[in-house]
Amino acid sequence: MSLLQSFCNHFYKNKTKTIFIVDILYMKDLNAFYGFKNGDFILLQLYKLLKSKIKNEILSYLKHKVCIDIKNIHVDVFTITLIEDLEKADIINIKNIIYKNIISSQFFLHNSDVSIDIDITIGCSKGKGQELLVFAERALHNAKMNYIHFMYYDSKLFKSHFINEELLTTLHRNILDKTVEPFFQPIQDNKTSKIVKYEALMRLYDKEGNILMPQTFIEKARKYRLFNKLMEILILKVIDYIKKYKIDVSINLDYNDILNPTMKNIIIDNIKNSKVGSYITVEILESKKISNYYLVNDFINDLKAFNVKIAIDDFGSGFSNYEHILNINTDYIKLDGSLIKKIDEDIYYNLLKSIVLFSKEQNIKIVAEFVSNLKILRYVKSLDIDYSQGYYIGKPQRIEKIMENKIER
């Protein structure tokens, strides 16, 4: 470690840092094909590229002095740490500098004129704590799982997601105290402009009474094998509210939940015993993961026996979901938010128009999500989309607030 780097680490140890993790893809294959000697030689060339050209380009882009520390922390994993609280736009631009330089470079084999290219994935995070590397590693992992070359996690937003002991205690407390609470987001009929149903979204509370959003606990709850208990409390509360207020409600289920016999029994048994099936719509999330339509339709048929309706969520993501409409006995499709956000662009408007036409020919109702302003709502209505949902229509709220607003209307 250089004298300058030692000074930076000591003097700025409590400053906000931004860390990029660079992971070479398929390094094991490169070692297998070309041998470990060539593998090490490629790593050495990448390290030199990071320390020279890429570092200099980052400094040139920032236009001011900043401490940059570059390390090889694992065989094929490098970190670039900037002692700087970078804005999101700067993070993206620096990521581009790193990514474009590496994938456009040729890496030579040892004692040979033969050169190859390499591919990488980058994870990034910023913050002050010692757990910063953990957040960046998590971002890297998720980028790989989603087959994308970059992902960023802000440690401030995801901190509670990684404090395992505290989160586990919070999950147990919400289960024991039954404080799992559905927040309801309204769904509007576009012909009448009236609220006709609601989507139930799970919320938990920490020990201070602050609301925890799903992205901070859902994945961990599944890993801790507590998600079924949370979901059961949610379903029972939703059923109670349906009985009390006679409202139509959508409940979200992941494809993996459908394959889970325990979850399947929880849902069907509670709906069967409560006799409120006609008020419930089950939204199937992550529909792109569906590989066994027989099991999915078996579950759907069990639900439909109690007059439950079915929706496919995030339809249109990846532009490859038409097969789901043909293979799943669905009543609704919910258009993916990424399409609705760009509805004012001709290519997306025409794509949505084709989806709407296809769905109407199949007698399937359509819901537009992420309707965040009047402009989007007008475009949605121009396509004759049946329903709208989003912050312009209404934010998720507790049932008491929903009923209060309903009375005011």
What's the structural blueprint in terms of helices and strands?
Blueprint: H1 3-11, E1 17-24, H2 27-34, H3 36-62, E2 68-74, E3 77-82, H4 88-103, E4 107-108, E5 115-116, E6 120-127, H5 132-145, E7 150-154, H6 155-162, H7 164-176, E8 181-189, E9 194-205, E10 211-212, H8 218-223, H9 227-245, E11 249-254, H10 255-259, H11 261-274, E12 280-285, H12 293-304, E13 309-315, H13 322-327, E14 332-335, H14 337-340, H15 346-361, E15 365-368, H16 374-382, E16 387-389, H17 399-408
Parallel strand pairs: 6-7, 9-11, 11-12, 12-13, 13-14, 14-15, 15-16
Antiparallel strand pairs: 1-3, 1-6, 2-3, 4-5, 8-9, 8-16, 9-10
CATH class of the largest domain: Alpha Beta
CATH-defined fold name of the largest domain? TIM Barrel
User: What are the segments in which pLDDT stays under 50 over at least 5 consecutive residues?
Assistant: none
CA gyration radius, whole angstroms: 25 Å
Task: Kindly give the count of domains.
Answer: 2
Secondary-structure arrangement, i.e. CATH architecture of the largest domain: Alpha-Beta Barrel
Number of helices: 17
Work out the number of β strands: 16
Structural class category: alpha/beta
Overall shape: it is elongated
